[in-house]
Amino acid sequence: MIAVAEALQLVLQNSSPLRETELLPLAKCLNRNLAHAIKAAVNLPHFRQSSMDGYAICIHNSMDYDLVGEVKAGENSNPELKPGECVRIFTGAAVPDSANAVVMQEKIKLKGKQITLQSDVILEQNIRSIGSQVHKGAYPLEKGQVLQASGLAFLQSLGIKEVEVYRNPKVTLILTGNELIPISEPLERGKIYESNSVLLRAALEQQGIETQLISFAEDTLEATIKALENAFKSSDVVLLSGGISVGDYDFVRDALAHLKVEELFYKVRQRPGKPLFFGKKESRFVFALPGNPASTLSCFYVYVLPLIARLKGGQSEGLIRLFVPLQHDFKSDEPRALFLKASIENKAVSILDRQHSSMLVSFAKANALVYIPENGVFLKRGDLVEVLLLPNTILT
Ligand code: AMP
Ligand code: MG
Q1: Which distant-in-sequence residues (6+ apart) come within 8 Å of 50 by Cβ?
Q2: CB neighbours of 65 closer than 8 A, spacing ≥ 6?
Q3: Which domains are assigned to the chain?
């Protein structure tokens, strides 16, 4: 049994970007990581732009300027201003070469065909200079950068139509358990609706990964081996759920040993998710996640997510961690480290009730996990605790 930090370290040490890359149109690149640094083929902006609605002036030694024209956004005109002349101009419009400042319209007085400045001007004020965002020939985005909405739009603004990104890992899910039934069947005593496939598929989708195969295995050694053999044919990552504990009908560990999957760790001093397995078979990775849904998801977020992020070409260390004040007192004498479903609201964190690993009700409302290190704590309201932000969290 190893500590949380050691387990995470083993995941990070063993994962590196997949070698294959692909050239994709920008619209297909959300959540992907760049396989090469991006070189700017143009200056951004590529012409001097006004950053205000106002007046482009050619400075002289008086506050009064003669209004001689107008430049709208999108126009290609370049009026010739003499010192003491100005043109009406708008945000994003091309500043005439002969203008050397833009004055906000709120900072002038207009009288007929003349404006009077209300305050001093600084040379080049309110003008976005050529290349001030990115110079032609520079490398504004590095290899490995994950592309979010902003990254895609930035590339588009550079005139880039397609980019080389790392391919996504192929992930297979194997759900074990004789008690699991599909939602199409009526519930019978002893059976439950299989839900970990929904859980894992959605959690992967949130990372831009489409699950390639979902298979189900009965609680027998043969069925588990068969499902694994099949998964190994075409997966970079195999995620098993259930059957990894010490029950008489838990066969996942034996099946992994039979298939010579190298064990990198088994069992972590944590709650939930103690019987977590991480291993490798050639270039493929295997996580056997404990079947209780909250354990499955907690282990996914803490350990699987950084693996996936690294295979995709990123530099992830896992979920964002920060220290947040507790909303209430909290005491625990649990020897194992805890990941507790929690909600951050108004800059403080509350640990939710119903923490048991069989329960998803608290997870469904959580936006963070509170991390309590080994051997318990005695905390007072206002004390800082370490929290891991769940993906896509928007704090309120
Ligand atoms: P196991 O890890 O196989 O001992 O399962 C632990 C608990 O998780 C049991 O109560 C299972 O019924 C439940 N469980 C296992 N797999 C799933 C699944 N795919 N969907 C929902 N619950 C599951
Ligand atoms: Mg089971």
Answers
A1: 56, 71, 89, 90, 91, 92, 93, 94, 95, 102, 126, 127, 128
A2: 55, 57, 84, 85, 86, 114, 115, 116, 117
A3: 4-19+168-311 (3.40.980.10), 29-42+135-166 (3.90.105.10), 49-128 (2.170.190.11), 321-389 (2.40.340.10)
Residue found under tokens 């693996």: 307
**To test the ligand 1 pocket, which listed residue (192, 224, 249) has its Cβ within 8 A of the most ligand atoms?**
192
CB–CB of 321/388 below 8 Å? yes
Helix, strand, coil in percent for the chain, rounding step 5:
20, 30, 50
pLDDT digits (tens, 9 = 90+) for 301-346: 999 999 999 999 999 899 999 999 999 999 999 999 999 999 999 9
Cα(212) to ligand 2 centroid in Å equals 23
Give pTM, 2 decimals.
0.93
Ligand 1 centroid to Cα of residue 291, in Å, is 4
DSSP-derived letter for residue 2 is B
Ligand 2 centroid–CA 251 distance in Å is 9
* Pocket lining: 243 vs ligand 1, CB cutoff 6 Å: yes
Q: Whose CA is nearest to atom 14 of ligand 1?
A: 291
Q: Whose CA is closest to atom 8 on ligand 1?
A: 292
Low-confidence ranges of the chain (pLDDT < 50): none
Exposed / middle / buried, residue 260 (Cβ in 10 Å: 0-12, 13-18, 19+): exposed
Cα(283) to centroid(ligand 2), Å = 27
Q: Relative to the alpha carbon of 178, which ligand is closest? A: 2
Dihedrals φ, ψ of 281, to 5°?
-130, 110
Reported as a single tens digit per residue, the pLDDT across 50-67 is 999 999 999 999 999 999
Cα–Cα nearest to 23, from 167, 147, 152: 167
Atom 9 of ligand 1, residue of closest alpha carbon: 292
Is residue 73 a contact partner of residue 92, using CB atoms and an 8 Å limit?
A: yes
Q: How many CB atoms lie within 10 A of CB 139?
A: 12
Q: Which of 180, 201, 244 is the pocket-test mutation for ligand 1 (most atoms within 8 Å of CB)?
A: 180
